[in-house]
Amino acid sequence: MQQAARRLVERYGILDYMAQRYLELFGGEAGAENFLQACENGILPSIRCNRLKIEYSKLKDRLEAKGFKLKQSTLSEYGFAIEKAPFSPGATTEYLLGYYYVQSIASMLAVEAFEPKPGELICDMCAAPGGKATHISEYMSNTGVLYAIDIDRTKIRALRSHISRMGITNSIMIRMDARQLPMLDIKFDRILLDAPCTGEGLLPVDWSRRQSRKLEDLQTCAARQHELLEAAIQSLRKDGRITYVTCSVAPEENEEVLQEFIEKGQLKVEETLPQIETRGLTRYASHKFDESLQRAARLYPNVQGTEGFFICNLRT
Amino acid sequence: MQSPHLKFSFADASKGAAFARQLKEQLGIEESQLQENWSWVVAEGPRTEAYLTPPEVASSLEKLLKNRMPYSLGLFAGGVERERLQVSLELASYFAGILPDRKLVTLKNEAEQPVLYGRDVLAGSIQHIEKTVRKRELIALTSQQEEILALGEMLADAQDLQRAAPNQRVIRNLIDKGWYLRKGG
Predict the structure, then answer these.
(1) Is B184 close to A184, i.e. CB distance below 8 A?
(2) Do B150 and B176 form a contact (C-beta atoms < 8 A)?
(3) What's the distance, CA A149 to chain centroid?
(4) Each residue of B150-165: pLDDT tens digit?
(5) What interhelical angle do A131-139 and A105-114 show, nearest 10?
(6) Residue B19 in 3-state DSSP?
(7) What's phi and psi for A136, nearest 5 deg?
């Protein structure tokens, strides 16, 4: 192992394979350290105001009267960072009334990139626990139809609960493996694929992940992401949009998954969140990816102060 | 709340009319006040549930039912026991703006938290109640800002509450918004 990798392993307690990859991904030891330091420092929790039920200013006033200190996010007009919380933000009356969702700014940006419109037929393929799904319905002004799909028996209960709490009435929830989406025989206007992933980007909120994810997990996740994307393509109407999202910074789960579909001409990359300065990769280790992947957005804790995310708008 | 073994179908006209009638009995909402063109959907299995769906959801559901059963949809209207709709908190909250005043019981600020923890309502916790509300009647418990916090069942006639001791339980908490946190997932 390189000396630099060894130092990262010793300083941050990450696994060997991660250190090697971070050196590659962040262009050397200083970049990798910058990323890991930001992960170790963590990020502020945040909430999304549910404009179907309340205006921002009223929510802010109510929560601040209870001792919360909120700061408007500079990245998302929907988000507030919680700078001070006298108690859990999931235990207020306002939370129970569905006035907000405790959600990362990165997740809000994924839906902003997705740009759902009122009246559309939309699918959220891996919808539980419902942060993005409820945000999508808000964008749709509770009109059209949102298919919210998830396979997990426990998580879909949480999805139902959040949909109910947030006052969403335009959804149809289905418990199924989203890889079977074409069996529904529906052509959607938009599909959000927030693909199950290693969650490598969640290090700032769960530092234990530096030990719990193995290299094999990357391969398993990538294979499933490929299958999910295939299903999404088959269920998209002509000229519809797929937004591919992961909470992983691993190119193996992002650019590498998309590369094959781009090469085959099945997908084209569209401009995604142009205000985000960190873009999709065109090179990583010995891999070279399509130039169009620069249109994808990457989020990092050390740059945007969010979880690590990959967000990419695609068209067939 | 929802079971994977429920079979969803559109309610026929007579069942839909019965639900609308029960909605009026329980919450005082007239059928004409309901959202135009919303459809009643019934889910049957180990238990029965009713849903209200906007037209676009209903139209999509019609096609979906040929291939797949949903898990849940639209607005959960309530459980159905012996053909009788037990209106849900979701339904009451959604139609909060059109509930008649006599169905709304306003709580004092200090009673908000106990109710959200599932507690019943004490006589001394009530800020406002219409005198005509009767024992066993279904009412919605609201905050000072007129937000629906819970559904309750009157344990006494409202006109008798003045004589009740402040710590006497006078409204049974049937379901409250804190349920989401405690059991909802």
Answers:
(1) no
(2) yes
(3) 16
(4) 999 999 999 999 999 9
(5) 40
(6) helix
(7) -60, -45
Condensed to tens digits (0 to 9), the pLDDT of residues A37-64 reads 999 999 999 999 999 999 999 999 999 9
Per-residue pLDDT band for B30 (boundaries 50, 70, 90) equals confident
Kindly determine whether residue A93 and residue B149, on different chains, have CB atoms separated by under 8 Å: yes
Label the pairing between strands A145-150 and A171-175. Answer: parallel
Contact call for A172 and B181, based on CB within 8 A = no
Q: pLDDT (tens digit, 9 = 90+) per residue, B99-133?
A: 999 999 999 999 999 999 999 999 999 999 999 99
Chain A environment of B181 (Cβ under 8 Å): 90-91, 95-96
Cross-chain Cβ contact A164/B116 below 8 Å: no
Active-site residue flag, A247: yes
Strands (E), chain B: 7-10, 39-44, 48-53, 72-73, 75-81, 84-87, 104-107, 121-122, 126-128, 138-142, 148-154, 169-176
Q: Which residues of chain A lie closer than 8 angstroms to B178, CB-CB?
A: 96
Question: Looking at the complex, does the CB of residue A163 fall below 8 Å from at least one CB of chain B?
Answer: yes
What does the block give as tokens for B24? 């009026």
